[in-house]
Write a structure and sequence with these properties.
The structure holds 2 protein chains of 2 kinds.
Chain A: H1 4-22, E1 31-35, E2 39-41, E3 49-53, E4 60-63, E5 72-73, E6 78-80, E7 86-89, E8 93-94, E9 96-101, E10 105-110, E11 118-121, E12 132-137, E13 143-151, E14 154-155, E15 159-163, E16 167-172, E17 183-191, E18 194-204, E19 207-214, E20 221-230, E21 244-249, E22 256-264, E23 267-269, E24 277-279, E25 285-289, E26 297-318, E27 321-328, E28 336-339, E29 346-362, E30 367-381, E31 386-394, E32 399-405, E33 410-414, E34 422-426, E35 428-429
Parallel strand pairs in A: 8-28
Antiparallel strand pairs in A: 1-34, 2-7, 3-6, 3-9, 4-5, 4-7, 9-10, 11-17, 12-16, 12-18, 13-14, 13-15, 13-17, 18-19, 20-26, 21-25, 21-26, 22-23, 22-24, 22-26, 26-27, 28-31, 29-30, 29-31, 29-32, 32-33
Chain B: E1 7-15, H1 22-30, E2 38-44, H2 50-56, E3 61-64, H3 70-80, E4 89-96, E5 99-101, H4 105-114, E6 119-128, E7 135-137, E8 141-142, E9 148-149, E10 165-167, E11 177-179, H5 180-185, H6 198-208, E12 212-223, H7 244-259, H8 265-285, H9 289-303, H10 306-319, H11 334-353, H12 364-368, H13 381-387, H14 389-404, E13 412-413, H15 424-432, H16 449-456, H17 464-490, H18 494-505, H19 508-515, H20 519-527, H21 531-534, H22 546-562, H23 565-586, H24 591-611, H25 615-621, H26 639-643, H27 661-669, H28 675-692, E14 696-699, E15 702-707, H29 711-738, H30 743-767, E16 776-777, E17 794-803, E18 806-814, H31 823-826, H32 832-843, H33 849-855, E19 858-864, H34 869-877, E20 881-886, E21 890-895, E22 902-906, E23 911-914, E24 921-925, E25 929-936, E26 941-945, E27 948-949, E28 952-954, E29 959-964, E30 968-974, H35 977-997, H36 1009-1012
Parallel strand pairs in B: 1-2, 1-4, 2-3, 6-12, 17-19
Antiparallel strand pairs in B: 4-11, 5-12, 6-7, 6-11, 8-9, 10-12, 13-16, 14-15, 17-18, 19-21, 20-21, 22-23, 22-25, 24-30, 25-29, 26-27, 26-30, 28-29
The chains are: A mainly beta, B alpha+beta.
């Protein structure tokens, strides 16, 4: 009896604790809202043709400069754009804009959501340039944007521009660092819903020297992968192998050493002069290399001590006229869907061990799944009547880029999502915010 | 009888049922050192043996009617006396049948008048009949409010402090010596004053007739005050209902109004009325309704018979020789009355709170024994003081508190504690207002603890920040004192009870509640140890008087005023008790006892709940209030922490600082002492705390769920654990001392080591990281000063709040300033549309957010830094928001459109913001249209135009809308009638329970002779 009652109490307490542990649904009190931000495709500049690949055809859009908030469906999967930029409710499918100057050049760019900052490593401000930096404000309030340029002569003064709501500005590249050849531009919005695009177009007099979109890089890194660099093999048509130019910038305050490794189907190697190459801080460096490889496409892996941004320019001949392609670094490949109707991109994957499962949806609605494997680099060309390509799964540290060939020229776009699923915590009403 | 002086003295003894005192009176008269020349007795219809006693003393007796007053009786005796011879010194000595003069009384009275020819009346010092050291009177006067004024304290001890011959307004007729010629000159006593106050009236009239009245303390008489103390019935004519108090108060008013100057009458009347009301209220509080009625009836009987007064004033005017102003010298000044009343109140309270300790019989002389008393003793008492555990304990706790509270001196805020308003006025206003300007506005009942804080702030002249500082500073000391008073009942060993009390104030729940600003838990920690003092028996609750039950009701209501969790606890405890009561009843217990228990227990449940209505009633429709603490809804800790007696949450002790609370309870369960019952109670409350620790709910302006703070339960767990520990150690010590080493020694040692370890580590933690607790002074405000420039403007504030290491974005609507005490408790709930607008602001999809915010009258959006810059850019990109500033405090956007509190929409759709006050408004509408009030919808909102109420609708946003049919001036009001009605009921309820809880006053006839002295 003396022991029994205490034991009953202890058992009761233990049972209570057990019950409490079982029903302990201690809520975090947090709910999340998941949305894909609308993406923006660049406006069509004078003399250019522009199409945007979208999917499905019911995807809603509106012209950027339309003052109403009303959206309409595309009713097509390849939309011919007017002059205005378009804002697309893409809902997780990344549209691709394809622009070309007939008989001059062509280039592709991802339509993307607003970004905190965008790096453009490419373009020129010398006498041959006809390029533009296009800045769009798809927000309903005015925007202020800082443009920081770098060139072979170092850091340039910051330019700030104001953009009215739902408008865009086209800034000639030669105004950013007049006379300088090698440009890298950082666009940072201070306020507003801002997207930027860069078109690098070269010409000498009336003669076009080609052009391309310079796709944006989100942030400098010490480990970069440029997964798809086109390469012209020496042949009867192309008497000389391509001279690629690696443009690289260490935007920090200290110089850095970098090493660029080429990944081909024949293996990996470091070209002469790209091993432990030192570059000054804040100065854009152009390093030309001409690898003797048999592959039509290769990847470049760059490692550095300090964060850098880099891209590779490759001059090409398309239908007898000069063109060039800017291949930019990409983030690691993750599941995503891209709208590719009207394009037949050569998708290139780079990585130590490549294993990518993708699904193609055709215009007729049928689907086909492919599994791409390989080491260092692997390529897969999308079928001609493909509407979308969905990357279902991938190995770790795999990167993807795409080369597109058209009658007007070559283009490149990175395989990455134009807008990522934004997970925003649903804010709670809590009077605690008014207590210090 | 032969006399040795020139005076002739006739003693007039008036008897009325005085057999109890008469023998002593007659003996006293017979034994006078200065013999009395003549004695005449007047009996006013005594029903006892008074007449026989007088006759047996051979005193001539005059028979009078039973309703014959004292003055008339004296007049009868004087009429029987031989005619006064002009020039002779003839005196009448008035003797009550309950007044025995000392043997030298007459001699001393005559000595006093020998060389004072102007004296017409002289009185002795009156002492108590039973206690001859109790000073009753040495001269008497009347205060402006009619009170009989003796200038003495209650039960004043006679040490000769008032000795001497004093010039006074009057002396009591008991033992008064009056010159016969003057007596006849002023027509004796007023026949309207049959009993009581005839002495003052007579003295007053003698004074204005140009004579003197003195009291000589060398002459002594012992007076039983039989009529005043209701030792005999009052049968005189005009004594309505035979009530002495009624007669006394009526006569007092009569004396004042009949004798005073005309110009003093209004002031005196006011004083008499207000005094009657005040005194009747006092008697009601003392549960003496009869006396209360006497007070009021006394005034009424006089007012309804003005002719008597007019005649009395006329008679007095004819006898008056000098200005009545001379009387003012004998009327006690008001400050004297206040001082004496205050002194009496303080002394009464002191005697209740600190009863006079029994004086030790061990004198220093005894202790020194044979030591030479002349040799100075070597004293080191100051060191001995420090050796006392009480002194050392409180000293240590004071030092600890001062160091640990170094960041808590000033305007405290943080944790669950909102900032204090500057003055108590704001708290009073919050409580009485029917509408609260918090968030989108709320008509919730304000919690009663606001009033308690406002009342408490009187001690610091209404300075609420100072009150909170003092409260948090003194809280550990108060907890320690309170616990020690209880533990002192369990053990006489101060070396056990003091450290235990220290540990109570340093317990995890105490530290956490102070660090996180939990007012209710602090209050419970301080007052919970007092509960056993009020309620001595719980099981046999019928043994407690109803007064005690109501006393406990008040204490429980005080708890309820801060947190309704105590109602939950009461419900659990009382339901369990009733269950066991029923079990006892079903096995044959007396039904009366059973019912008595049920009534008492249900009273303890319902009365405290009702006393905090309507706040408590609102909890019935919003049950989460039963689980909430005052202030901000801050989450408590997880189950494992609670199991260790730690309520958790911000400001709580870290998990690795485990307290011995659970260990002590478990060990005490196996004890054979009363520690076992205490531990069982502790385990029950601990189980309840564990169960409640898994409940999460939204409350007090927080739409998110927060885990319940179980501090109220753990306060009781901690108290029981410490009490059980004290009982254990107290008994164990003696056992361990005499026994060989065995497991008990080891167990006790482990317990002590664990406890000491906790005491040291928790002290170090409190002094270091604990000192930077959430509750601190000198915090910068959330809202920047420039946003307060537009008072009462609604601002949507977005801020990242840290919670358990992670941050989340939360929002609320500010009125331009930070919140203050009480506002979280009445904060309205979340509105879905605003929630969506806020969410869309953040995720960038809020194209219509600005329209929604504008519809609710939200003029600005303020993002408090530090904040995610991406979201700031997202808001920048949304339409309808114009950035107006970006400072280190944060970024502000103005919401576009017509935004205001009162929006007028004309028929053509144009909108106009109308001028509005803080709550109400008086403005003009330009024409027919719709008036929208951007406050939460409430039925009490009314708009009046041209004397008519405009029809009220609820618009699509759930806001109040009024249809205006024509232009003109309108008044917007929030009708607070219902709130005022509730408050009135609450006040009545509280007064009623206070009266029931107060000790009942006794009628004079119930007071024992010895107490009356």
């Amino acid at each position: 009896m003396i022991i029994k009652r205490p034991l009953i109490y202890i058992a009761a307490l233990s049972t209570t604790v057990l019950l409490a542990s079982l029903v302990n649904v201690a809520s975090t009190g947090r709910n999340y809202s998941q949305t894909y931000p609308d993406v923006v495709c660049p406006p069509r500049l004078s003399g250019l043709n522009s199409q945007v690949s979208v999917s499905p055809s019911s995807t809603q859009f509106q012209n950027l400069e339309n003052r109403s908030s009303k959206t309409v469906p595309f009713k097509t999967t390849r939309y011919v754009m007017s002059k205005s930029a378009v804002v697309i409710a893409a809902q997780g499918v990344t549209p691709i804009a394809w622009q070309s100057r007939p008989g001059g050049w062509a280039g592709g760019v991802l339509c993307s959501g607003p970004a905190q900052s965008q790096w453009f490593v490419g373009g020129s401000a010398d006498v041959t340039t006809r390029g533009h930096l296009i800045i769009t404000n798809s927000g309903l309030s005015d925007a202020i944007v800082d443009i920081q340029s770098f060139s072979e002569n170092g850091k340039q003064p910051v330019k700030s521009i104001n953009l009215k709501s739902k408008s865009f500005a086209s800034i000639a590249l030669d105004s950013l660092a007049p006379g300088d050849h090698s440009l890298a531009v950082l666009v940072t919005p201070r306020s507003g819903r801002v997207n930027s695009f860069m078109i690098d177009e070269q010409g000498a007099g009336l003669k076009s020297l080609g052009g391309d979109f310079v796709n944006a890089i989100s942030a400098p890194a010490t480990d970069l992968m440029i997964p798809a660099v086109p390469n012209e093999i020496q042949s009867k048509v192309h008497k000389n192998p391509s001279n690629h130019t690696l443009r690289i910038l260490a935007p920090g305050n200290v110089e850095t050493q970098f090493t660029a490794e080429i990944l081909t189907t024949d293996g990996r190697f470091i070209p002469v002069g790209l091993n432990a190459h030192t570059i000054s801080a804040g100065v854009v460096a152009d390093i030309t290399f001409s690898p003797s490889i048999a592959a039509k496409v290769f990847a470049v892996h760059i490692t550095s001590q300090e964060p850098v941004v880099a891209s590779i320019s490759t001059p090409l001949i398309s239908n007898g006229h000069k063109d060039f392609v800017w291949s930019t670094s990409v983030p690691t490949l993750s599941p995503l869907t891209m709208a590719i109707s009207g394009l037949t991109p050569l998708l290139t994957f780079a990585g130590d061990s490549i294993s990518v499962e993708l699904s193609v949806t055709f215009l007729n609605g049928k689907k086909r799944t492919s599994h791409i494997t390989g080491t260092d680099i692997a390529a897969w060309r999308a079928p001609a009547n493909a509407k979308t390509v969905t990357f279902i799964s991938t190995n770790k540290n795999t990167y993807g880029g795409a080369i597109v060939t058209s009658t007007d020229g070559y283009g490149y776009f990175p395989v990455e999502a134009g807008s990522v699923l934004t997970r925003v915590e649903v804010p709670n009403s809590n009077i605690r915010v008014l207590n210090p | 009888m032969a006399t040795a002086d020139k005076h002739s003295v006739t003693a007039i003894v008036v008897t009325h049922d005085g057999e109890m005192w008469l023998p002593a009176v007659v003996a006293a008269l017979a034994s006078q050192t200065r013999p009395i020349d003549q004695i005449i007795a007047v009996d006013t219809g005594s029903l006892d043996t008074s007449t026989k006693l007088i006759k047996s003393a051979r005193i001539p007796i005059i028979a009078a009617d039973r309703n014959c007053g004292f003055g008339d009786a004296v007049a009868l005796a004087v009429a029987k006396m031989p005619t006064h011879i002009e020039g002779s010194s003839e005196w009448i000595w008035l003797i009550h049948d309950d007044c025995a003069p000392a043997p030298t009384a007459l001699e001393k009275l005559l000595e006093a008048i020998d060389d004072r020819p102007q004296v017409a009346m002289v009185g002795p010092k009156l002492l108590g009949w039973h206690d001859h050291t109790h000073l009753l009177e040495a001269g008497v006067s009347i205060a402006g409010n009619g009170a009989r004024w003796t200038g003495l304290e209650t039960m004043e001890y006679d040490q000769g402090q008032h000795d001497g011959i004093h010039d006074v307004l009057a002396v009591s007729t008991a033992g008064a010596l009056i010159r016969r010629d003057i007596f006849e000159e002023v027509d004796g006593f007023d026949s309207n004053l049959a009993l009581f106050r005839d002495d003052v009236d007579f003295g007053w009239r003698v004074r204005v007739a140009g004579h003197a009245v003195i009291a000589t303390t060398q002459a002594i008489a012992y007076h039983a005050q039989a009529a005043a103390t209701e030792r005999r019935s009052v049968d005189v004519e005009g004594a309505l209902l035979n009530r002495p108090l009624l007669l006394d108060r009526r006569n007092a008013a009569y004396v004042l109004l009949a004798n005073s100057s005309w110009w003093m009458m209004p002031w005196l009347t006011l004083q008499i009325f207000s005094s009657a009301i005040a005194r009747s209220l006092g008697f009601l509080l003392a549960k003496l309704p009869g006396y209360a009625a006497d007070e009021l009836l006394a005034v009424a009987t006089l007012v309804f018979r003005p002719a008597t007064l007019i005649k009395a004033r006329k008679d007095r005017k004819s006898k008056r020789l000098i200005s009545p102003r001379i009387i003012s010298a004998y009327i006690p000044p008001r400050w004297s009355q206040i001082r004496l009343t205050a002194a009496n109140v303080v002394e009464t309270l002191r005697s209740k709170i600190i009863p006079v300790a029994e004086i030790s019989t061990n004198s220093s002389i005894e202790s020194l024994d044979e030591e030479d008393l002349l040799v100075p003793t070597k004293s080191n008492q100051w060191i001995n003081i420090l050796r006392k555990p009480e002194i050392l304990g409180y000293l240590l706790m004071s030092v600890f508190t001062l160091i640990a509270s170094r960041d808590r001196i000033g305007n405290l805020m943080g944790g669950a504690l909102a900032a204090s308003p500057s003055g108590a006025r704001d708290l009073w206003r919050s409580y009485f207002e029917s509408w609260h300007q918090v968030g989108l506005g709320s008509s919730h009942a304000a919690p009663p603890w606001l009033v308690i804080l406002a009342l408490a702030s009187i001690a610091v002249l209404g300075n609420i920040p100072l009150l909170m500082t003092v409260l948090f500073l003194l809280a550990p000391l108060l907890m320690m004192w309170s616990a020690h008073s209880l533990l002192g009942k369990l053990s006489k060993n101060r070396f056990i009870t003091m450290p235990a009390s220290f540990l109570y104030a340093m317990s995890p729940v105490a530290l956490a509640s102070i660090n996180s600003g939990r007012l209710a838990t602090i209050l419970i920690l301080v007052l919970a140890p007092r509960v056993p003092f009020i309620l001595s028996a719980w099981k046999s609750i019928e043994l407690n008087s109803w007064r005690r039950i109501y006393g406990l009701c008040l204490l429980l209501a005080l708890f309820n005023a801060f947190t309704l969790t105590t109602t939950l606890i009461s419900f659990g405890v009382i339901a369990t008790a009733i269950f066991f009561d029923y079990q006892s009843f079903s096995v044959g217990q007396d039904k009366l006892i059973f019912l008595s228990r049920i009534y008492r227990r249900l009273t303890l449940l319902f009365v405290p709940f009702m006393l905090v209505a309507p706040y408590s009633f609102e909890a019935l429709v919003k049950p989460s209030r039963f689980l909430a603490e005052p202030g901000l809804a801050i989450a408590g800790g997880s189950t494992p922490l609670v199991l260790m007696g730690n309520p958790g949450g911000i400001g709580a002790l870290p998990w690795w600082l485990a307290s011995p609370i659970l260990l002590v309870l478990i060990v005490a369960l196996f004890s054979s002492t009363s520690a076992r019952q205490i531990a069982q109670l502790g385990i029950i409350f601990l189980s309840a705390a564990v169960l409640f620790s898994v409940i999460s709910f939204s409350s007090h302006g927080n739409s998110g769920h927060a885990i319940m703070w179980t501090g109220s339960f753990l306060a009781i767990v901690t108290l029981t654990s410490i009490a059980a520990g004290v009982v254990l150690l107290d008994r164990l010590r003696s056992t361990l001392v005499i026994s060989n080493i065995h497991y008990r020694h080891i167990l006790a040692a482990l317990l002590l080591i664990f406890t000491s370890l906790y005491a040291v580590t928790s002290t170090v933690w409190s002094l270091t990281s604990g000192a930077t607790s959430p509750v601190q002074s000198g915090r910068t405000t959330v809202m920047p000063a420039f946003l307060t420039a537009e008072p009462n403007t609604k601002i949507l504030v977005l801020r990242e709040i840290s919670n358990g290491g992670s941050k989340s974005v939360q929002y609320y609507i500010s009125r331009g300033t930070d919140i203050i005490l009480g506002q979280p408790d009445v904060a309205p709930g979340q509105i879905h549309e605003i929630e969506s607008a806020a969410q869309q602001l953040i995720d960038g999809s809020g194209i219509t957010s600005s329209k929604v915010l504008a519809a609710y009258g939200i003029k600005y959006v303020f993002v408090k830094n530090p904040f995610n810059p991406t979201i700031i850019r997202t808001i920048d990109g949304l339409g309808g928001f114009a950035r107006t500033s970006a400072t280190s405090s944060g970024v502000v956007w103005r919401v576009s459109g017509a935004v205001g509190r009162l929006i007028f929409t004309a028929k053509d759709g144009t909108q106009q913001v109308l001028q509005s006050g803080e709550i109400g408004a008086r403005t003009t509408v330009p024409g027919p249209g719709t008036l929208t009030l951007t406050e939460s919808f409430d039925r009490s909102w009314q708009v009046v135009e041209n004397g008519y109420r405009l029809p009220r609708l609820r618009d699509a946003h759930g806001l109040s809308q009024f249809q205006v049919s024509e232009s003109g001036e309108i008044s917007l009001i929030h009708d607070g009638t219902i709130r005022r009605g509730w408050l009135s009921l609450q006040l009545i309820g509280i007064v009623l329970v206070v009266v029931l809880a107060l000790p009942a006053g006794r009628r004079k006839r119930e007071i024992s002779e010895s107490e009356l002295a």
